[in-house]
Specification:
With about 160 residues, this protein is of the alpha/beta class. Helices cover about 45% and strands about 15% of the residues. It has a five-stranded mixed β-sheet, with helices on both faces. Helix 1 crosses helix 5.
């Protein structure tokens, strides 16, 4: 892809991100991850079972993804969402993941509240790794080459 094409695609991607919140963002995330990683499992809700505190899982890299994409950021809601997803994932999906990935739609970067939550979780739960995935990383994924079933870049 030429530079002009990449630049145009990036602008269109940012325009799209400005419009995606809540379930629409999660749907986009599922489509992107499924197209990039054959081992990605897009977890749907199932009645009273819900999604068992996971919006997605990768089988080979053993990552659990928790999406949070509100229209309005409220620190107390971030704390509730993060704590609920982490505790639920550990209780309901222990043994299915080694890395907890907090996926968000904040175009400006990671909210300070989330940085503290991730640092505290990493300190309090040394058996797990913690990552975040925001708009910058999603943009890079949308522009990159597809991956093989093990998550390696395809040639």
């Amino acid at each position: 892809m030429r530079y002009e094409q990449r630049a145009y695609a990036h602008v269109k991607f940012l325009e799209l991100m400005a419009e995606l919140y809540e379930n629409d963002f999660e749907d986009f995330f599922h489509r992107l991850m499924c197209s990039r990683y054959p081992d990605f499992l897009d977890v749907r809700t199932a009645g009273s079972l819900g999604d068992m505190s996971a919006d997605g899982l990768t089988l080979h890299s053993r990552r659990l993804y928790a999406c949070y994409a509100p229209q309005t950021v409220k620190p107390y809601k971030i704390r509730e969402k993060f704590a609920g997803d982490l505790a639920g994932a550990i209780a309901k999906r222990g043994g299915q993941f080694d890395t907890f990935v907090f996926v968000h739609n904040d175009r400006r970067g990671l909210h300070p509240e989330v940085t503290g939550l991730l640092a505290a979780a990493a300190s309090n739960t040394p058996s797990l790794r913690f990552e975040q995935m925001g708009v910058r990383r999603l943009a890079g994924m949308s522009a990159a080459r597809p991956h093989d079933r093990r998550g390696r870049a395809a040639v």
